[in-house]
Design a protein that fits this description.
heterodimer; A: about 350 residues; mainly alpha; MetI-like fold; 2 domains; two-stranded antiparallel ribbon; two-stranded antiparallel sheet; 15 helices; 4 strands; about 0% strand; B: about 475 residues; alpha/beta; D-Maltodextrin-Binding Protein, domain 2; five-stranded mixed sheet; 20 helices
Chain lengths: ~350, ~475
């Protein structure tokens, strides 16, 4: 018994030490946000009112707007994160379910038809018909889609891509470094704005669409694994009763996959919340998000750690809250699943 | 419930009507144009530096003209690509941009020329000629308006320098009076004298961190030994061949000095950016520093400084020997030649050609930088605006913020630096930050002791020459000569 209780004590001590080690950076940011510039640069100080005199100056600077509009960028980040994550999870989970339960056969040549018809149609519309860029792109996409669907039904030679290949294609979109497409996307949005009057640059829709596009591969890939692990017998029983597939998806599959959905939503929100590159490139004043403002606290006049600490707390706090709330949902979902 | 709804409806209606009436009631001030319905988008780095000044000017302009100003803030490091991306795509995202003068060669093709009527006012003549006739001009045209004056000046601790015990000890050790150093040799004597780590005080503090404005501090050292009064424009490159000069003995001596500064700085100084240097000085940790004007405003502010009342200012040290790149010899001078370095050069504001409200945008720029508004900005700590007008050097303005002696020395140092016959301009040429990135990498290696100063600068010179050839030697030479006023 003594040996057991000693082991318990040692374990608890180690856990507490690890807890301090992991929480210390958060504590450091927290106290730094209440320090004056002199207290920050005058050497390490840890305890307010003992080592240093706390001040609210950095916080009042942040909320006064003198270091950028934290309120506006915060709410921009909230709305865009929620919208992009929900859209990506809804469509991504549907795509993932389809890839698990249906058999896809995509002929490689049909894919090549899509690419070549797309380019050819665009050139035709742009150079021969002299249409605007946006109209030409729309025309090209429609032509490519129609022709490739038709050609897929024909007995074309060559490899046939199946479900795993389609999943790989989805995932491969994320292998490309985002910077490669950043300026191209900016130009695309700019063209669409000029040709059609649909404002995508510095807009809620533009940024949300971008994040949906970059989040979908991840959602599809992760949800596919979750759906694969679900017992198919429950769905088969429903199919025998002539329950439509969409009802099976909504009323049987989704509730069973709830922990997975929650986890994927958390991951997607985390990605969108922290995303900097596209937020910087695609926004100017109206829909700038928090990561861009955060980056600006590191001014060219030097690292103002007191301001950076405040900005970081504003950025971290919502994600902490979301993680705690969604984590509870995930755990409750897991527990439900274990009861038979 | 019905009452609550009715109450809410009434409040909402009242709010809408009130704001509508308020908006409808805006009348431009007498003599001001009416820009009702016009919104000016102003690009700036994230505040408070510069953005707060543009906002202050914007609030004043809105009251005067009924126009609106939206300050759009970005991280400093992203400003340049942000502007160029918008211009390259033909987007009219900005009506006014604020930018570093070093970017002028790259941005100038996209900027509109300043309206001539802006140059016909008394306020125009109030701008110091170094800014008005040099930094605001590109290829013979005024393409921008200075909104901030930037140069390095020396700051020293009045309380230490005038302490009788310190003066006696210094005299006993060095055989001369303890005075504000006029040369770099004197600077290091004073720094060594006050370098007392056991007492928590250090000789000097400068920026040494890569990405922390390090190279501008090194340029201030280099200007003294390389900005030859008889060879204008030869500090960075040979103005005739565009060969890099950064590895000549003048630059090497400057780097040796810079490394010496690191040894006389507080611990951890290798990670200091310019912000850290002024915090260290204002925190009473060092006897001297040199910096932009911010040390003066921070050090004299009791809410930010532990040494208010003790901040002395002067020109940065000079030299009696300067390298002559033509004769390849050191030239001796009978007096100290000061070469105050216009580090960074001072933020500029300009109106892109793509702006659909150019007239309103230039009016906003003129209003924001007029004598009244710019004076408020210059004396406001955290605005990032340093003096650039003659009227900014009025002591009345500054004695609200500093002691009479501090104000007098601060303004004299700034004014004398600007007016120095051998003032050294920062270079302005396409790819400026590509050149400085190369320099920073090698400087960091030299500061860490990995390579000698000569090796570091030989590498810089070689890479700079390659870069020049990549950009096009002839076009770089033309840009460099234009930036040096040749």
């Amino acid at each position: 018994m003594n040996k057991n209780s000693n082991q318990k004590i040692i374990t608890q001590i180690l856990c507490i030490a690890w807890l301090i080690f992991t929480l210390f950076p958060l504590y450091w940011i927290f106290v730094t946000s209440f320090k004056s510039p002199i207290a920050v640069t005058g050497g390490p100080t840890y305890l307010p009112w003992i080592d240093f005199e706390p001040t609210l100056n950095a916080w009042s600077d942040a909320f006064s707007g003198s270091r950028g509009d934290f309120f506006a960028t915060f709410f921009n980040s909230v709305w865009i994160s929620i919208a992009a994550s929900l859209i990506a999870v809804v469509f991504g989970s549907m795509a993932a379910y389809a890839l698990v339960r249906f058999q896809f056969r995509v002929k490689l040549l049909a894919g090549i038809v899509f690419a070549s018809c797309g380019m050819g149609s665009y050139l035709l519309a742009k150079e021969i018909f002299d249409w605007k860029d946006t109209t030409s792109m729309g025309f090209a996409f429609l032509c490519a889609l129609i022709l490739s669907v038709i050609s897929n039904r024909l007995p074309l030679p060559g490899p046939v891509l199946k479900n795993n290949d389609v999943v790989f294609w989805f995932v491969s979109q994320r292998m490309m470094p985002p910077i490669v497409s950043a300026f191209a996307l900016y130009m695309l949005y700019s063209k669409i704005g000029k040709d059609s009057g649909i404002r995508l640059l510095d807009s809620f829709a533009g940024l949300t669409l971008c994040y949906v596009a970059f989040s979908l591969p991840l959602v599809v890939w992760l949800m596919r694994d979750f759906f694969e692990s679900l017992p198919v017998e429950v769905e088969e029983a429903a199919l025998v009763d002539d329950v439509p597939r969409w009802r099976i998806f909504l009323e049987i599959v989704i509730p069973m996959a709830k922990p997975g959905l929650v986890a994927v939503t958390m991951i997607t929100i985390g990605f969108v919340w922290n995303e900097f590159l596209f937020a910087l490139i695609l926004t100017t004043g109206d829909w700038q998000t928090l990561p861009v403002l955060l980056s600006g606290q590191n001014s060219y006049r030097g690292d103002e750690w007191w301001a950076i600490a405040v900005a970081n707390i504003i950025a971290i706090a919502p994600m902490l809250i979301i993680t705690i709330l969604l984590g509870r949902m995930m755990r409750s979902g897991l527990m439900l699943g274990s009861i038979r | 419930m019905k009452k609550m709804f009715a109450g809410f409806l009434a409040s909402a209606t009242a709010a809408i009507l009130t704001s509508g009436i308020a908006a409808a009631q805006c009348k431009p001030q007498s003599g001001m144009p009416d820009y009702t319905g016009v919104t000016i988008n102003v690009g700036s780095q994230v505040g408070p530096f510069i953005a707060s000044a543009m906002k202050q000017g914007g609030d004043s302009w809105s009251k005067a003209t009924c126009g609106k100003v939206q300050i759009v803030e970005f991280p400093f490091g992203e400003l340049y690509p942000k502007y160029l991306t918008a211009f390259a795509a033909g987007e009219d995202a900005f009506d006014v941009i604020t930018f570093a003068p070093a970017w002028t060669p790259d941005l100038a093709p996209f900027l509109s020329e300043m309206p001539s009527k802006m140059r016909e006012t008394d306020a125009w003549q109030d701008i110091h000629p170094t800014y008005r006739d040099r930094l605001m001009v590109w290829e013979g045209k005024h393409k921008s308006q200075t909104i901030d004056g930037d140069l390095h000046t020396l700051h020293y601790r009045i309380d230490l320098f005038e302490d009788p015990k310190e003066r006696a000890a210094f005299k006993a050790k060095y055989g001369r009076d303890l005075v504000v150093p006029r040369t770099w040799d004197e600077y290091y004597e004073v720094a060594e004298f006050f370098h007392r780590p056991n007492d928590g005080i250090y000789g000097v503090t400068e920026a040494f961190a890569r990405g922390g404005q390090q190279f501008w501090f090194y340029f201030t050292h280099a200007a003294s030994y390389t900005n030859h009064p008889e060879n204008p424009g030869s500090m960075f490159f040979d103005p005739d061949t565009m060969d890099a000069q950064v590895n000549n003995p003048g630059w090497v001596k400057a780097l040796e000095d810079y490394i010496k500064s690191l040894k006389l700085a507080p611990p951890g100084a290798l990670n200091y950016s310019s912000g850290d240097t002024r915090q260290q000085f204002a925190g009473g940790k060092t006897s001297m520093n040199f910096d932009w004007g911010d040390t003066g405003t921070v050090g004299t502010d009791p809410s930010q400084s532990q040494i208010p009342g003790s901040v002395g200012s002067d020109l940065t040290p000079g030299s009696t020997t300067i390298w002559n790149y033509k004769t390849k010899q050191w030239d001796e001078f009978s007096r100290v030649i000061h070469s105050p370095f216009m580090a960074f050069g001072g933020w500029q504001a300009a109106v892109p050609e793509l702006s659909e409200d150019k007239e309103a945008a230039w009016h906003y720029v003129e209003h924001t930088t007029n004598i009244e508004n710019s004076s408020i900005q210059a004396i406001t700590g955290g605005s990032g605006v340093n003096p650039y007008r003659y009227s900014h050097f009025s002591k009345d303005l500054w004695e609200k913020k500093m002691s009479p002696r501090e104000a007098n020395e601060y303004l004299t140092a700034q004014r004398d630096s600007l007016g120095a016959t051998n003032v050294a301009l920062d270079m302005r040429l396409p790819g400026y930050f590509s050149y400085t990135e190369i320099l920073e990498i090698e400087l960091t290696r030299a500061l860490a002791g990995e390579i000698s100063p000569q090796e570091a600068l030989d590498s810089v010179a070689s890479q700079w020459n390659e870069l020049t050839d990549e950009f096009g030697r002839d076009s770089q030479k033309a840009a460099y000569r234009a930036s040096m006023g040749l």
